[in-house]
Amino acid sequence: MLYSEEDARIILKTSNDTVSPQVFNPDAFSKAWEHGTMAFIFVCLFVLIPLIFACLERIMTQKIWAKILTYGLGLVIVDTFIAIKIAQSVHEIKAQTELDPAKWTLTDIFTDVNFYLVFILGAFGILLFKFCFEKLNRMADERNSDVAEQQNKISMGHQREDIEKYKAEVSAVTSEIELKEQETIQKRALIDLSENELQNLPLKKITQIENSKNDLANKLQIIESTTDVYKSHVENDNIPVSIDALKDRINVFLEGWNDFLHHEYSIAKASEKSSSATEIALNWEYNKITKNSIDMRVKVK
């Protein structure tokens, strides 16, 4: 396609032959030879461009940049540029045979079959050669003892890492099992202790009942002894009472009497009767305590 446009002009000027441009010309090499040795060599070397892009991942050490150049620059930019230029050349050659040719615009590529044909077949060629090249390289690497040894070392390294990982997991599981066994032993000991307590529970209950009976018997004996003492005092009319207890009894009586008066009578009358009762109680205390006319049953502390 580098020289087809100029050849078409020469044919149209020198003869009456028609020109039918095609994307793939079967006489491309012979016609390129007619334009000189360098033209032929250039056409032959041009095919190296997609091949180099397909081999970048094998050549470059930075695999990410190799992928970017292969798919970004080679597959998209270069292949698209070549497809646009070939579609434009075919359009220009056809335009020379038309009386009113349409001007080429970049938007024509979206409706130009030649553009899609060149782009798809160009991309397919790069991808197909890339796949075959990588496949052949892997086969060669498998036959290469040095590469196989390196791969084995890498594989062994990964396997060692996996073994260490599994050992760590086994150690963790073993520790967990030991912990569970200790918990099981503790729970079994607790179960045995509970069973023993359960077996001893009737005997323990009987013992507690006997102790409670004994305590009750002792308390009853003390109460009976105390009761006998108080009975003796009552029968002999000799009940010992302390002065403090006597005053407390008087105060309790006065409080109860005061509540009764205020409940049954008016406030004035209740207050009068309450004051009278208090005065009588004080006089009684004065006569019994101050004048030493205390009943013999009252104990002075």
What would your notes on this structure say?
This protein is mainly alpha-helical. Helix content is 80%, strand content 1%. It has nine helices and two strands, in the order αααααααβααβ. It has helices spanning 4-14, 28-34, 37-46, 48-59, 63-95, 113-143, 145-235, 243-264, 267-290; strands spanning 241-242, 298-299. A two-stranded parallel sheet has the order 1-2. The longest helix is centred in the middle third of the chain and has 91 residues, at 145-235. The radius of gyration is 62 Å and the shape is elongated. The mean pLDDT is 77.
Could you outline the blueprint of secondary structure elements for this entry?
Layout (H helix, E strand, L loop, with lengths): L3 H11 L13 H7 L2 H10 L1 H12 L3 H33 L17 H31 L1 H91 L5 E2 H22 L2 H24 L7 E2 L2
Helix pairs in contact: 1-5, 2-3, 4-5, 4-6, 5-6, 8-9
Per DSSP, the total helix count is 9
User: Helical content, roughly?
Assistant: over 70%
Biggest β-sheet description:
2 strands, parallel
Based on secondary structure, the structural category is: mainly alpha
The number of distinct β-strands equals 2
Determine the oligomeric state from the structure: single chain
pLDDT < 50 runs, ≥5 residues: none
Which keywords apply here?
301 residues; mainly alpha; two-stranded parallel sheet; 9 helices; 80% helix; 1% strand; elongated
Question: Can I get a quick summary?
Answer:
The chain is mainly α and 301 residues long. It has helices at 4-14, 28-34, 37-46, 48-59, 63-95, 113-143, 145-235, 243-264, 267-290; strands spanning 241-242, 298-299.
